[in-house]
Design a protein that fits this description.
heterodimer; A: 272 residues; alpha/beta; Rossmann fold; five-stranded parallel sheet; 40% helix; 11% strand; globular; B: 310 residues; 2 domains; seven-stranded mixed sheet; five-stranded mixed sheet; 12 helices; 26% strand
């Protein structure tokens, strides 16, 4: 169950996408298309009625944790945590990707701002999240990219419930947008492999609120096994329709006003 | 020189873990399938609920250890040093978490002192690798007393620590009353004609050679912390001896020689000699045999001092 109506969620998603387009155009660098693919997945999680957080006390011991392992998606993290009230979103616009800013090109851990982990190279954050889950009673979610699951270190995590112990409070969220930096990503038998290692596997459309709600509800209802949710998403979703789901836009900001206009036009056309 | 015992650094590490486990309820220990080599098995037997084995999975072990630290635990990881090379990106990302975490990485089986298992088991580049990671304090104890003292401090003060252990027995010459501080280098013997800067178990070798050279000849500086590196005692010694020899069970690239040379090049350019493992794939052999072959033993150091003083 969400705390907001679907209309309200749609409005949040619209605002966040608009902010992402402006933020990344202003910075002249950053991963817009990855961030756009995660808008509903991220908003759905933080707006779920089970999700515990306190923007006034980011280090609250009983908070649920969201680790971001595919660190290049940090613009969506920055905009969502601003929306949740950890800091004014203007601070992101003023300092994003600037020297010594709290909003680096990849996340730096900062509990006050709701950032659980410093990230960067792929295949690492999901282990941090698993280690934390081993000793916490809170729920731990970790967002990874589908390309990130090619890292041996990521595939190795799938054996952790068997080799270490199953964490019933751990949910791995795979952003399956099907596109990496220089090629398409086929996750192959990932779901079957996860099941074989003892994971509770859930597959859902990562842009459909009802599907997202179903996936998270099913995930938290199983407190015995670790979960993996494979969200089917579209890279660049809700922006320039000519770039949606197309290879070759990874980490490329809009180059000029005309390209921004194409993003905004696509965004407005899709507004519900 | 009074000798208080004869114990390998990994054995004193294993004993210290058991004591510290009693003192700190929030201590967690991890190993990657080598607990009977690193000696973390004593902790595992006494506190099985606070011990994790990651399986033969060094990156995952460092990742999980970092996560446990993020969950508020004091964490000590142990592994055979050479295998930690698998985990370098994870070590780099661990220290990037900042914000007061407690993470100690202890590596046993370093240097050619590992012996007959051969070159693939000799980690002679670990100090260089760990010096490359900002925020890691890099410690290379010279005897068991320093192992105990540095572990105790590292558990009290949050941060990221690397502790270099090794396999053979080493005489313990540090008295329990010695006021050891992480981040300090120590003048262990005074002399006026040559300075020997030594690290790890080579500190004992240096003290033996200084004794053989006779009173007042060789000054011995013991390095137990590479990062941060305490420059002053080395520069001060170089100023009055004018000659500096380094000795280490590690390659000179990124090791003790380059650490000392870097400091002296800036502060007091001084003639130097080095005794270090060559940058090549090393061979099987007994530890003493290899130390002799690679010219990092007592007789090589004595010979180098005599030559330098001639």
């Amino acid at each position: 169950m969400f705390r907001l109506s679907l209309n309200e969620l749609d409005e949040q998603a619209y605002q966040i996408r608009k902010d992402l387009i402006n933020l990344i155009y202003q910075a002249k660098s950053g991963h817009l298309d990855t961030s756009l693919s995660l808008v509903e997945v991220w908003l759905g999680l933080v707006n779920s009625d089970f999700y515990r957080y306190d923007p006034q006390n980011g280090a609250w011991a009983e908070r649920d944790r969201i680790f971001l392992s595919e660190g290049h998606a940090c613009p969506i993290q920055y905009m969502v945590n601003g929306l949740l009230g950890y800091y004014p979103k203007e601070e992101v616009f003023v300092t994003n990707r600037r020297p010594d800013s709290k909003f680096q090109g990849h996340t730096i851990r900062n509990l006050e701002y709701g950032f659980e982990n410093s990230n960067g190279s792929l295949g690492i954050g999901l282990w941090h999240a698993y280690g934390a889950a081993l000793e916490l009673s809170s729920r731990v979610f970790c967002i990874v990219g589908d390309g990130e699951m090619q890292e041996p270190s990521s595939l190795g995590l799938l054996a952790a419930p068997h080799n270490l112990k199953p964490c019933g409070n751990y949910t791995l969220i795979v952003n399956n947008n099907g596109l990496a930096q220089d090629s398409a990503v086929d996750i192959g038998p990932l779901a079957a492999v996860c099941r074989a290692w003892g994971w509770h596997v859930i597959e859902a459309d990562g842009h459909d609120w009802n599907e997202i709600d179903r996936a998270y509800t099913e995930a938290i209802s199983d407190t015995v096994n670790p979960k993996v949710i494979i969200f089917k998403t579209v890279k660049g979703k809700g922006g320039d329709p000519k770039k949606e789901g197309k290879l070759g836009n990874h980490g490329k900001p809009p180059a000029n006003d005309a390209e921004v206009a194409a993003y905004v036009e696509g965004l407005e056309a899709g507004r519900k | 020189m009074e000798i208080f015992g004869n114990q390998s650094l990994r054995e004193s590490f294993g004993e210290a873990l058991v004591e510290l486990g009693n003192q700190y309820d929030d201590l967690r220990v991890l190993d990657a399938g080598t607990r009977n080599s690193t000696m973390s098995e004593g902790f595992q037997r006494k506190y099985p609920d606070r011990f994790y084995t990651a399986g033969i999975n060094e990156p995952g072990m460092i990742g999980i250890a970092t996560g446990l630290a993020m969950a508020g635990k004091r964490v000590i990881v142990s592994d055979m040093s050479i295998f930690l090379q698998h985990a370098h990106a994870h070590l780099l990302t661990a220290a990037r978490q900042k914000q007061g975490l407690h993470l100690i990485v202890a590596a046993s089986h370093t240097g050619v002192a590992v012996g007959p298992d051969g070159g693939s088991a000799h980690d002679v580049t670990d100090i260089a690798r760990m010096r490359l990671i900002p925020d890691f304090t890099v410690i290379s104890p010279w005897d068991s007393e320093i192992v105990r003292k540095s572990l105790k401090t590292a558990l009290e003060e949050p941060g990221y620590y690397y502790i270099r252990l090794n396999r053979p027995k080493v005489p313990t010459f540090t008295p329990p009353s010695f006021d050891f501080k992480i981040g300090k280098t120590y003048k262990l013997k005074s002399g006026s004609r040559v300075t020997i800067v030594a690290a790890g178990d080579k500190v004992y070798t240096a003290l033996q050679v200084a004794a053989e050279l006779g009173e007042g000849i060789a000054e011995v500086i013991g390095v137990a912390t590479f990062e941060p590196f305490d420059r002053a005692p080395i520069v001060e010694s170089a100023r009055h001896t004018g000659r500096v020899i380094t000795i280490e069970d590690h390659i000179s690239q990124g090791g003790l020689f380059e650490s000392v040379a870097g400091v002296l090049a800036e502060d007091h350019p001084t003639r130097m000699m080095k005794l270090a493992v060559p940058r090549k794939y090393t061979t099987s052999g007994e530890p003493d045999e290899l130390a002799k072959m690679y010219q990092i033993d007592k007789s090589a150091l004595l010979h180098a001092c005599v030559k330098f003083l001639a």
